[in-house]
Every structure is written in C-alpha cells, then in structure tokens.
Write a structure and sequence with these properties.
Length: 501
C-alpha cells in the first residue's frame, strides 16, 4: 500500500496554472480533466482499501467471537472468560441430589481389619471414675485408609536333583514369565502402564510417583521398556478389536494432530459403545484410512463430522449434528439470521422426539413424524437460501475458478445436499444424533499430549495407541483396567478372555 501522499491530488505549481490560462480554454480544460482523473483514481484506491479493511475487521471479529459453542475449538481454548451458553431449559429443580436419590457416601463394613477400643475413664456428668464398671456397648466409627505399601519379593527356587541311575542333573521348570534372575512382577508393571497410559503421567513423573508411593527407583528407560512390552502383549487383542469394528452396525470416526519426533502426524480413532481403536499415521486422509482398513470394509454406518475423505467410502454415513448446531450458532449470533435458529430448534426438537420414542421401546419414528420434520427442514433450507443468494460472478474480483461463497451459504448447500445423512438418526435408531462418542475417545489422546508432551518415536506412539485401544475397550466393558493389564503380562490373551468377567 502507498503512503499518505498517495491519497492527495498532485499539487500544480502556480506558474503551470498561469501558462494553461494563457494558452486558452483547451489547456485549462485539459488541466481540469487531468485533476478529475487523478481524483477518481484516489477515490477508487480509498474505496478498495476501506473494503479490504472492512473485510479484515469482519474476519478478526468472527475469529474473536468463536469459542467452543459455535466452532470446532475445544472448550479448553475458551480461557478464563468463557461464555456460558445454555440450550437446555430449566427443570425447576434445586441443585444437588434430588429426593429419593441414593447417596454414594461410605458405608460401614461388618468385619473391619482392625479394631481400636477407646476407654471412657470418668463420668461426663459427675466426674466419678468408671474404671471398674462393665461396658454397656460401643459407638462405632470407621476410618477407611490405605496401609503403607511395601514391595513384596517372591523368590522362586527350582529344585535340582541328580538321577541315581544315569547321574544326570535335572532342574525344575520355573513358572511362566519367570525368566530372569531378578525382574518386576505383573502387578508392578500393570501399575506402571496404568500411570503412564491411563493417568497420562510422563515417564519422569511416573518414575517419581513410584519412588514416592512405593519406594521403588524405576528408571525412565525401564518404564519405556515395560510400555513397549505391554504394547506387544496386547497387539493381538487390538487386532481383534479392529475386526469387531469392521463388522459393527455403527462406528464413530475422528482424528487429531499428533506430534512425533517434532513432526506432525495424525492420530485416527474409530469406536462405538463397546470398542475403541487408535492408530497413528503420517497422513490425515485417504492413505491413512485405507491402511487402517476399517472404513473401507465397513458395512454398517459411519458417524463423523463430514471430513471429505470419509465420504468417498460406500457405507452409509451420518453426520454429527453437534457440529451443525455450532456452525448454525455462528451464523445466527452475529448476523441474526432467523433460519439458523429455526434449524437449531428443529434438530433439538427431533432429537427429543427420537429419545422419547426410544424410551417407550419404539424402533423407529412414525412415518408422519418423519415427514413433518423433513418438511420443516426443506422450508428452513429454502428460507436460508433466499436470505443467502449465491454470489454473482460480476461482483467477484476473481475471474477464474469457483466463486467464493459465504459460510452461511456453504452450510446451507451442505445441509441441503446431505439431508439424508444429517437426519439419519430419525430413520435408524441405531444411529446417534452426534459424533460425541468419537470426540470423547479422541479427547483422551489430546489430554495425553497436553500433560505428557510429544512422542519421541513412531514406535512409542504406536505402543501408546495399542495400549489405549485396549484400556478404552476394557473401560467400555465395565471391567478393571489394572486386572486387564496384569492379565496381558501374565498370559496370552484373546478378546474373549479379556471381556469375560
């Protein structure tokens, strides 16, 4: 951009003006026309600059107004000045536990491990000694605590005997897994894996935790070795989880950035209410999805946020309406476009209707209800299209390629084009309203990166993904994570073994 002098008419010397006057009317007219041309050029530049600045201000305002309620930004990015946006209506109930709600406080046990008797020595009224009096009863109070934890060392001694006939020495076999002079047991290794992969501690903090809690000086290298070993032990089970998802009726998909050795990779997640599968890859799109092999072979329904590479696969698709509501909120709040608020209302109303039908045992909505919501959907789209007409080529500075559309127009065209995928939760009750299940699974991996940082090698990231696939699946099945990790170290597992209580 030019300096301030570019926005002023050129200064014509007095002598030049006099010369034009003496030269006659044509010279004066030419001088004035020259000044008019310069003025028009300046006005055009000023208008162009104002337009660019206005667009820039609008873009900055849109960026500043975005948070987790109207964009894909995580709630952790909202900061201390997070705005609270309520979509649920007040239930009229007071905060806290409601009448009839069963509490979760500690309950006294019948047989405590230790009992301490506290003697009453004098009368609390007159002060007379009660030392010789019989005990009438006890008022019990129980304290739940963890006793000091000490490492228990078990020495395995294999008998050695000499045969009296051939004089050959024979040695007894050690139990499976006892293969070194000294080694850590499966419970200790399970604790190490738990702290690192479920508690998301870094290796340094996990080593410090072992020193503080158990007085065991584990090194970072030892912890990394235990992790790698666990990843290898659960590899077969994780492959069986992948096969289960391939044949599942509904699978959620999502991905997030992953730093490995200072380079951007992508962590891909696939899962449902029973199983979780994670895999790290250098690419985000089709190359990674094809290598993972779940979505290309899926015969059920894929739930996702309309990431374009997902849509190329031939299975049925359903889109995340939580994403749609955030996008619609971003359209409605700054510009006040009524159609966006109406679409939010339709989505939430239909969701509530579906949930009510599920509670009553229905497998699908009545056809009349589906038609009602579809008609409202079409009417809202038509209203939005009218309020956001497509851009005119004559109004666009670009002479080639696709004309840039507004975000509202892009959203409308997508909702119109993918209405079946958007509303599939109404026609198939197995399909959820949103993709929150995948986002919950992926959120755990984001927490790991925030707490523990990046991975130093691809092998470490792969081990972590295998262990987290195993742990997340175990949690979804309502089983003990510690016991499951111990089992992985103690014996060769199948998925059936893992899920049997």
């Amino acid at each position: 951009m030019g300096g301030e002098k570019d926005y002023h008419l050129p200064r014509i010397p007095r002598g030049q003006i006099l010369n034009a006057y003496k030269a006659g009317p044509e010279a004066v007219i030419s001088l004035i026309e020259y000044l008019q041309d310069q003025h028009d050029n300046i006005v055009d530049r000023v208008v162009d600059q104002i337009t660019k600045l206005t667009e820039r201000i609008k873009a900055l305002e849109e960026k500043d107004n975005k948070d987790s309620h109207n964009s894909d930004k995580p709630s952790s990015s909202d900061g201390l000045h997070r705005r609270i946006h309520k979509r649920r209506e007040s239930s009229g109930k007071k905060p806290g536990g409601q009448e009839g709600h069963e509490g979760t406080t500690l309950s006294m046990v019948e047989h405590p491990q230790q009992v301490q008797i506290h003697e009453v020595k004098v009368c609390q009224r007159c002060g007379k000694s009660l030392h010789q009096e019989k005990v009438c009863g006890y008022e019990p109070r129980q304290v739940f605590d963890i006793p000091p934890i000490a490492v228990e060392v078990t020495e395995h001694r294999a008998q050695i005997k000499r045969c009296p006939h051939c004089r050959q020495l024979s040695v007894a076999a050690f139990p499976l897994g006892v293969s070194h002079k000294t080694q850590y047991g499966p419970r200790l290794k399970a604790f190490a894996v738990y702290l690192k992969n479920y508690g998301f501690l870094s290796y340094d903090r996990a080593a410090q935790a072992f020193a503080d809690l158990f007085a065991i000086p584990l090194s970072v290298g030892t912890l990394a070795s235990i992790d790698r070993r666990c990843g290898q032990r659960v590899e077969g089970v994780v492959e069986q989880i992948r096969q289960k998802l391939i044949h599942a009726k509904v699978v959620h998909f999502d991905e997030t950035g992953l730093s490995i050795n200072g380079k951007l990779h992508w962590l891909h997640g696939a899962g449902n209410q029973e199983f979780t599968y994670y895999y790290p890859h250098q690419r985000r799109g089709t190359a990674a999805t094809d290598q993972i092999g779940i979505l290309p072979r899926l015969k059920g329904n894929a739930v996702h946020d309309n990431w374009k590479p997902y849509m190329k696969y031939s299975c049925s698709h359903s889109l995340c309406n939580a994403h749609h509501i955030r996008e619609l909120t971003a359209v409605y709040e700054p510009g006040g476009q009524p159609w966006a608020q109406q679409m939010i209302g339709l989505l939430l109303d239909s969701k509530q209707t579906v949930e009510q039908a599920k509670r009553t045992g229905k497998k699908t909505l009545p056809l009349c209800d589906i038609r009602k919501y579809e008609s409202r959907y079409e009417a809202i789209i038509a209203s939005g299209m009218k309020a956001n007409p497509p851009p005119d080529r004559a109004d666009s500075p670009a002479t080639r390629g696709r004309i840039k559309r507004s975000k509202a127009r892009n959203l409308l065209e997508r909702l119109d084009r993918l209405r079946e995928e958007t509303l599939r939760y109404m026609t198939d009750f197995r399909v959820p309203f949103d993709n929150n299940a995948a986002e919950r699974d992926i959120r755990m991996m984001r927490i790991q990166q925030k707490v523990s940082g990046a991975f130093r090698s691809y092998g470490g990231a792969l081990s972590f993904c295998q262990i987290r696939s195993y742990i997340s699946t175990i949690r979804k099945q309502g089983l003990s994570v510690i016991d499951a990790i111990m089992n992985a170290f103690e014996k060769d597992l199948t998925l059936t073994d893992c899920l049997s209580k």
